[in-house]
């Protein structure tokens, strides 16, 4: 529901399949948590704002794919 609301508010690209987005965010989150478990000196809490900004930019309607990248 939160992602659908974000699409309605123009925060997330409506062309994205939300089921796929949820799955991919879960996979990315699993990797981040695993890395944190293996490398606690990484200080996850300090990196969460950058991670949140990265996800926001990836999902934004105006996000542009790099030249030569395939969708």
Please write out the topology.
Layout: H1 2-8, H2 18-38, H3 44-59
Structure at a glance:
The chain has 71 residues and is mostly helical. The chain is built from 3 helices and no strands. The protein is 62% helix and 0% strand.
Class derived from helix and strand content:
mainly alpha
Low-confidence stretches: none
Average per-residue pLDDT, rounded, comes to: 90
The level of helicity is 55-70%
Task: Please give the radius of gyration in angstroms.
Answer: 14 Å
Largest sheet, strands/sense/barrel: none
Individual helix count? 3
Distance between the termini: 25 Å
Number of strands: 0
Q: Would you list the SSEs in sequence order as H and E?
A: HHH
Shape: elongated
* Amount of beta strand: under 5%
Structure notes:
- The protein has 71 residues and is an all-alpha fold.
- Helix content is 62%, strand content 0%.
- It is built from three helices and no strands.
- The longest helix has 21 residues.
- The radius of gyration is 14 Å and the shape is elongated.
- The relative contact order is 0.14.
């Amino acid at each position: 529901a939160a992602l659908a609301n974000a699409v309605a508010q123009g925060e997330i690209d409506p062309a994205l399949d939300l089921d796929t987005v949820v799955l991919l965010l879960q996979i990315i989150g699993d990797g981040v948590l695993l890395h944190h478990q293996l490398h606690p000196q990484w200080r996850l809490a300090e990196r969460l704002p950058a991670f949140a900004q990265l996800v926001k930019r990836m999902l934004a309607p105006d996000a542009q794919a790099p030249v030569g990248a395939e969708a």
